Amino acid sequence: MNDDSSPILDVDSKPHRKGSTYDVQDPLYHRHLWLDQLRSVIVIFSFIASLTWLFSGNIRGGEIPVGPTWLNFGYRYVDFFPRMITLVDIGSQIFMFIMGLSLSISFQTKAQKKGYKYAWISVFNRVFVFFWLVEVLLMDFIHFYLNDIIILGVWVVLTIIIIVLRNTFFKQSDAALYISLIWSIVSCIIWFFKYDIDLWTVFFNHPLAHFAWATLLGALGIFTIKRPDIRIIIPGILLGIHYYLWERFRYWGIQVFVGTHFEFHFMIPFELMGMGIVGMTATCVWDWIHMDPTDFKVGFKKRFVPLMVLTCIGHFITDFFQTADSEGVTASIILLAVAFSSMLAMTMYAMEYYIKYDIPFLTAIGKNALFLLLLQAVLVIPYRIVWPGGGGDFRSMVQEWFNVSTQTHILVNLMGCIAFLIPIVILIITGWILDKYKIHIKV
Amino acid sequence: MEELTYKSENEKQFKSLHDRYGWLDQLRGFCVVWLLVAFLTWLFSSILYLGYPPPVGPTWMNHGYRYGDYFPAIITIIDMGSSIFMFVLGLSAPIAFNSKIQKKGFGYAWIAILIRFFMFIWFNILIKIFYKIDFSAVGMGFESTDLILVFIWLGITTVLVILHFLVLKGTKMQTYALLFWTILSVALWFPIITYEYNVWTIFFGETLAYLAWGTILAGIFLTILKRADQRIWSAIGLLLLHIILWECAKYNQMGPTRWFFELFPGTVLDVIGIPFNIISMGAIAISATCVSDWLLIQYEDPIQGIRKRIIPFTIIIFCFHFLVDFFQPAEHSGINASLASVSIFIAIYLFLAHYAFDKYFNVKIPFLTPLGRNALLMFILQGIYLFIYGIFWSNALEFRAQFPGLVGNFLGICLFIGPIALLIVIAWILDRLKLYLKF
What we know:
Shape of chain B: globular
Largest interface: A-B, 50 and 54 residues
Oligomer: heterodimer
Strand content of chain A: under 5%
Strand order of the largest sheet of chain A: 1-2
Strand content of chain B: under 5%
Largest sheet of chain B: 2 strands, antiparallel
Number of strands of chain B: 2
């Protein structure tokens, strides 16, 4: 996930920070701080979004949400057709775009260093870890039956054995990755048998599952079509298919594995397709940047900017016919996300190589982006328990605490502000501590 | 920090000030396109909570309150549009102001600002008159006194144009004559609409008036506080003043921006209110002048200014917005402190992006430069499109009823792309002919 070692260094773009990962002599391990910075911007915004989502209110019923409205999903503000699109609605697509960029770097570096087999195993490892994380995140933490305890007990023993093996016999060897793959597959299978969620949710209907499939599709694209100018046709075609299917079969579905434990309602995985398109496009972008290894700006000028302008125009036109919707990741929102991600990526790239500025704490957060994304899910759990009713619930409770006349009283607003700031500060401090001790959790 | 304003005396520095127009024009062009789209989405809005047909055009490219008018409002980039445009105007203010001082003196620089102020107000009046025209009525809906005023104006304008070419050209009097003409234009055209609009609306209550006052405030603070590091406190002070006044006024039943005091009932000076929008626009314009000056902290290396001042300020202003929004949620009407601060944040981001595109990536997005070079004219032209469309449709309901389904979608896109394309063509031709409307 965070392995941004690039096979080529930009000769003109000298590192600006001493003591950073730039100092590593091997150019294969050049770390792109702009990607870390970009990732952490998304992590912080998605964290804010998870809080605004939680503190939404039935605005038509007079409930007042907590937090900036534009930092929440449009449909959580008020759910009309067509939906309002905010920055948060395209957040996961932007994250996927950044993942696609990283994927291109890590896959190609690994293939170059240790062969395609190794590169593919690391991709599969990442994919299964994502599926396993879905199972963990959606697990019922309250109800455990005997068979659940046995299953998870087996998993704990297996995990301990694998950790020991990885850090003793197979340390520094390629076999460590094989063992990780085995662990992720086994974990995925074992945890599924806790039966808290269905196959559809684990494999197709969760943002992490979308990331998993998009990673797989992205890697497949890099592996099969080397030239990005040709590879970009695939997401283009997929976009057309997505458009058509959404138009015709949006509500289509079928019940499969009826009568078994695996029964689920199959629908066309639109989100997955959308994320795949974004991921594959991002892999092309990375290769375009390296079009001229001596001057990365050539790739930006000849391909990246035209892509940004075209996707922006494409979104504008498509939206008249099929409106943007974050549920289903429609063609319109895909195009918007690619255009916006491109602009963000270019700005952050210029921030590193031209302006030479690191926004404080962002690099530290970006290096542990995935972990901190998961941490945010944990940090909001107490909020879910205390204020299940969202913003309205929060405001009435605080109003009662302070015995104030209105739900928009300054004290209520102040508490709302504090409720947001505390987890954000925890997130930043955690990211900073982990980075200080060089603990970078990678998938 | 090194004092920058009034220092660009050598020719080299001047030359460099002009080099920067590349990114500025691109940024202006970008704003013009967005504003046009926003005008159109505004016109083709729908009342969704009543179950009306969908609006025409992307929802996020319209004002949030046109999507759903609730408290707190949903904020889109369009809600920040005029503020961002103010910021872009403010960016060029120190460049224009200082070079005018150097070339022709302090008085000249201020006369130029006053000309811009009165031009904005005059355009504001013209737009109002434009909407008053009734082609089916005798005299197009105007009174005979209105026509007399217009004829007087035409006469004086003709005299001034002749004087300009025969006597005044190249002299200092030319500027004074132009100022005289703009003041006269406001004075002669304003009575035409007084039956419908008062002083408050025309001089304090419309977007062009906000831009006018923003320009004046930027000019005042550029004059008083030459150092950007000091001047920025005046912008922060204005935002804090806005917060306090908004807090006092927010309990008014009609909303803070409708908190009026009666002055001279029955006259054009019937009411006055708190000029919330002007306070914010002033803060935005002053911030922009500071950003422009910070860029020259170290003249030879503008990046230093970006690193040392602009980016830290951007981060601080975002944090400011984030905190203030809990207490005073961003609102378009009145441009409260939360909206003003997020607008400054987005505007600086756009500025940095365009600056990097130009200076680092050496990229120019096609057609934005010609649009940017005539940004004010393009901005005004948009009003004409809106007027023409307004004759046929007043909202999405009428349009969709006339053109349902796929035909409506297709025609909708044509109605949006057509004027944009026309605007680009006009800008491109004007640019080819080197015709730029500046004031």
